[in-house]
């Protein structure tokens, strides 16, 4: 049997057992050897995509004996940057670069250059960074309902990204629940569509993750969530918007479940936090999702996405100071002195916070409102354009992160065709689908029409050539089924290894 054939095996309730057998079996030399032989051709494809410069651009496994001239080093960096910029600049990429106008980038770069030596770990040396971070948190909190929140002292911190914001909050809930509620076997209740960062938090912090299937509209199922909550639950999660399908979970109902039980509720607004408040102002029907709801006790919102800052910042917010205190790290008996840090890192790039502050100050309310208007308009056009293509269906009712699948075609082959036309879309699972996260890049003239024309061509091609070989379709196909889950995660491990190959 070939690895690819496993994709057709349906195990049902035997899944966990087979996964376990697989974990043991793969340690046997004979199984290991067979698996490696099966992995080899797939890895060859993956390695090619991970290392496109291999053999073409000089590589440096060890330090050069003598330092090279700045001009030569910069030329090398510029050349690779040039090759990689065109695709996102011209709007072929889902998400990734959210603003990308040259003047905006130059402005951010200048703010970074001015502050590149700063480190907020030394708040005495660089109080300016503490000022920027306090203001980033306050501006974000006020945008997300802090001013109108009852019984709240909304506060927070600047982190390195959405994942860190989420992990900080989940660890804070774990320790808060142990201290205040005596919960020693903590559980976290999330919809299956919640970001992988919640899974990562559960793994890192010894929290049991309880995943609740979403409804046919791809939004969290309130009744099923209610059933999943028990005396070990420390926090319930909802997304506004969800990464896979771009929809808003029923945050009001979910957060009420949590409030009634006296436990935490986290709205993950990493992707939606800097668009939804403006969408609401623009008249879109946006159900409440932020601190205006009394049950929302924490939120994450990413400045490095639709906040249009440089990569490397996000904001985690709490309803009150007590909760934030569980996030902090402080130690008083270390020989290295009194040590305390608000987030996971020790030393941090203050320049990224200064740059984030600069981005927010330069955008202002009107800037975010305008950007959101453009993104939502293009999102609507693309959503309706996809709905009009026979053979495709839009999943749920999204605004600007639009997932689509098909009942008749292999959607991953459609994605492969789009890749050949230079597009970089996100492949999704369960159900098989693909999404485009619309950014300001897609609001440039002609980009939405080009996307829809290429998508129509992709559908026609896939219909005409249903058995075409190659591309990522087989890997995505496999990843949708067990027992090959273990196989897929093995491949991901090897892919990560490949990234570190010189
Ligand atoms: C809803 C949601 N949450 C969390 C994250 C994680 O953010 P990051 O990649 O910045 O860690 C993302 C990223 O796309 C997201 O869409």
The CATH superfamily label of the domain at 114-360 reads Type I PLP-dependent aspartate aminotransferase-like (Major domain)
Which strand order spans the largest sheet, edge to edge or round the barrel? 1-7-6-5-4-2-3
Q: What is the end-to-end distance?
A: 34 Å
Biggest sheet statistics: 7 strands, mixed
Question: What Rg, in angstroms, do the CA atoms define?
Answer: 24 Å
Ligand set: pyridoxal-5'-phosphate
The average pLDDT score comes to: 93
Number of strands: 13
Q: Into which percent range does the helicity of residues fall? A: 40-55%
Annotation field: number of helices: 16
Give the DSSP E fraction (strand runs of 2 or more residues). Answer: 5-15%
Question: What does this 3D model show about the protein?
Answer:
There is one protein chain. The chain has 502 residues and is an alpha/beta fold. It has a domain at 114-360: Type I PLP-dependent aspartate aminotransferase-like (Major domain) (Aspartate Aminotransferase, domain 2, 3-Layer(aba) Sandwich), CATH 3.40.640.10. It is 46% helix and 12% strand. It is built from 16 helices and 13 strands. The protein has a 7-stranded mixed beta sheet, sandwiched between helices. A 4-stranded antiparallel beta sheet has the order 10-11-13-12. The radius of gyration is 24 Å and the shape is globular. Bound molecules: pyridoxal-5'-phosphate.
